[in-house]
Amino acid sequence: MSPTAHLSCLWALLVACLAHSIRGSLRAQAPGPQPLELKEVFTLFQIQYNRSYSSPSEHARRLHIFARNLDQAQQLQEEDLGTAKFGVTPFSDLTEEEFAQVYGHQEAPGRVPNVSSKVVPEEWGKSVPSTCDWRKWAEVTKTVRNQNNCKCCWAMAAAGNIEALWGIKHRQSVEVSVQELLDCNRCGNGCNGGFVWDAFITVLNNSGLASEKDYPFRGDDKAQKCQAKKHKNVAWIQDFIMLMDNEQAIASHLATHGPITVTINMKLLQHYQEGVIRATPTTCNPNLVDHSVLLMGFGKTKSVARMPAEASQGGALTRPRRSTPYWILKNSWGPKWGEKGYFRMHRGSNACGITKYPLTARVDKPAKQLSVSCPP
């Protein structure tokens, strides 16, 4: 067994034992001495995610935050209506405020700027297949990016959208520059946040986008002058569109044209491990969206027969558990988070505001300019 797998097994055992005891101790206890089991789990967390702290007092503070996050994860586990599992993640030593400041972007405004954006109603009423997973296309699938401490989820989602649509339309795999979107953004925010439409407008303004190889991602807060004119472009867009705020229409467009960017409330993702999140408006407000990701597909979980409580008294009847429809989404927190960098959310309930800003580019190569000369 690998060291990582061994740590995961230890975590599972220790966290299971701690799940209920931590909640009770936290309610009665101020920051201070913690149970031995909690310290062991925290030590494993530090090893797994290479965490170290500047002082004993900072270590004690992070341990207390870690304990509260385990309590929160257990509460989410009890409240969620889907199959999601919540627990220890790379963000378990961060407060909710710290997590929001580093990994999201500012809360999106009430409406999108009316620049090259169009609502597309024709997707309404079209038939939708039962499953769709664009990860199975070689030209679409790319390594899950990691934004690290740069608030650039919006740029990474837009870049992923352009790459996927380019691969589908031209059967040509490209990897475009996220750093160009940060350096050349019309708002000049860089790693301080932005919106998907800012990225698309930047590509339109620059008449294309360079490759990741030529213009690599730096992901730091140091301002860098736009270098777009120094590099050859490898992908172009004609414009971008906003789809209807309807999940049927979104699914139809996704299945017909390819991956779409969406902006969601990321509150539940801090503690997410795997499975299908089925949030309620109370646990994940659909109006407060602050994180952009790439919608890659959809499907349904398998129906599972379960044993009811009364069966344990001698009965043999089983009751089927209904399948759960879900969306497949690609995040920008690296492949070690969630389901190898992806996560799933319930489809059909506007989970975490997934229908608020469904945006996608229209990709195409630039039209050739016909040479014009004066007739003799």
TrEMBL record:
Signal peptide: 1-24
SUPFAM superfamilies the record matches: Cysteine proteinases
Gene Ontology BP terms: immune system process; proteolysis
Assigned keywords, A-Z: Disulfide bond, Endoplasmic reticulum, Glycoprotein, Hydrolase, Protease, Signal, Thiol protease, Zymogen
Any one Pfam family match given in the protein's UniProt record, by short name: Inhibitor_I29
Entry GO MF terms: cysteine-type peptidase activity
Cell compartment(s), UniProt: Endoplasmic reticulum
PROSITE patterns: THIOL_PROTEASE_ASN, THIOL_PROTEASE_HIS
One CC-aspect GO term: endoplasmic reticulum
Residues in Cathepsin propeptide inhibitor domain copies: 42-99
Keyword Ribosomal protein belongs to the record: no
Peptidase C1A papain C-terminal domain: residues covered: 128-362
InterPro entries on file: Papain-like_cys_pep_sf, Pept_asp_AS, Pept_his_AS, Peptidase_C1A, Peptidase_C1A_C, Peptidase_C1A_papain-like, Prot_inhib_I29
Family of this protein: Belongs to the peptidase C1 family.
Function comment: May have a specific function in the mechanism or regulation of T-cell cytolytic activity.
Identification of the protein by name: Cathepsin W
Native organism: Trichechus manatus latirostris (Florida manatee)
Gene: CTSW
